[in-house]
Write a sequence for this structure.
């Protein structure tokens, strides 16, 4: 028996038994207004970015007044099986809708299809699927453009020429792969005197892994590398720490993607020369709002872009950059 058939069988059993289900779509308020339960499933739950997505999702629920957000995801962004288990659990619980940030652009497709077969619509956010035919909408940063902004910022910080390193994240993560390819494409197109001396190394999914791998690659190219780009927050923190401990502050220019407190501080002490920023609060908000529009029969755009920006030492104290560098958290 395939996992897909087994899951559908569980759904049939759950419906047939008529068990107690507090997430049922039939819940109403005393005034007769229908209550909706929307599951929001991030890639992970430990990084600052996801806490801000959670805040945005809850803001939408609070504004709507008749929505309960169920927030649950794996602890680590390497746990694809854990995320699959969460999706399956919410399907069995018959939530009204699922907002999902897939850890793998291929591995989650089957489970999104099962959700649709069960009558549960899915909005994808943050990171895309290779097959979006059974999804309502994709709410995310334009990650390719984010990678281009990183390339422009890093190239300008090294004076338009020199050697740089791209430190990748993990295979199957559509959002970071788009950043990586956008970064390489922009350098090739606009900065012929910038040479990418390494673009095939992966940092890993935790700051500790990223620190070890960044240390290794920076030591390998010591005296040759002028700049480095790390494509997400945990990678960025590992790279920042490696630069600091190797005595390369100011010597190797560094651009990251997504902020945390040490990276923000790095903008002020010559450790960090740019941070590409998303709007995670808006992303969580728009994901839940898009789901509710769909559930109420309204038309929803297939692609919703939430914006991308760059904080630098020069602009970091502006009102807009402060809002994005230190977004609301749940």
């Amino acid at each position: 028996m395939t996992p897909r058939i087994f899951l559908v069988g569980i759904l049939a059993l759950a419906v047939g038994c008529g068990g107690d289900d507090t997430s049922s779509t039939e819940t109403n308020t005393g005034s007769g207004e229908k209550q909706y339960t929307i599951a929001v499933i991030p890639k992970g739950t430990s990084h600052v970015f996801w806490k801000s997505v959670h805040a945005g999702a809850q803001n939408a629920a609070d504004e709507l007044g008749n929505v309960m957000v169920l927030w649950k995801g794996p602890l680590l962004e390497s746990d694809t099986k854990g995320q699959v288990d969460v999706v399956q659990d919410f399907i069995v619980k018959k939530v009204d809708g699922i907002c999902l940030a897939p850890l793998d652009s291929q591995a989650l497709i089957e489970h999104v299809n099962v959700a649709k077969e069960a009558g549960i619509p899915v909005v994808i956010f943050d990171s895309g699927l290779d097959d979006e035919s059974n999804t309502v909408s994709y709410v995310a940063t334009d990650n390719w453009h984010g990678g281009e902004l990183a390339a422009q910022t890093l190239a300008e910080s090294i004076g338009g020429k020199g050697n740089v390193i791209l430190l990748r994240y993990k295979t199957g993560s559509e959002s970071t792969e788009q950043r990586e390819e956008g970064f390489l494409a922009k350098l090739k197109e606009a900065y012929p005197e910038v040479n990418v001396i390494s673009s095939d190394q992966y940092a890993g999914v935790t700051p500790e892994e990223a620190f070890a791998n960044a240390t290794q690659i920076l030591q390998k190219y010591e005296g040759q590398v002028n700049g480095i780009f790390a494509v997400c927050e945990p990678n960025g923190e590992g790279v920042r720490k490696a630069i600091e401990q190797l005595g390369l502050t100011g010597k190797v220019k560094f651009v990251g993607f997504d902020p945390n407190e040490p990276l923000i501080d790095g903008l002020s002490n010559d450790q960090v020369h740019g941070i590409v920023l998303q709007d995670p609060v808006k992303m969580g908000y728009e994901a839940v709002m898009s789901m509710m529009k769909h559930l109420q029969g309204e038309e929803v755009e297939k692609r919703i872009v939430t914006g991308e920006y760059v904080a630098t030492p020069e602009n970091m104290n502006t009102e807009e950059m402060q809002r994005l560098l230190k977004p609301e958290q749940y």
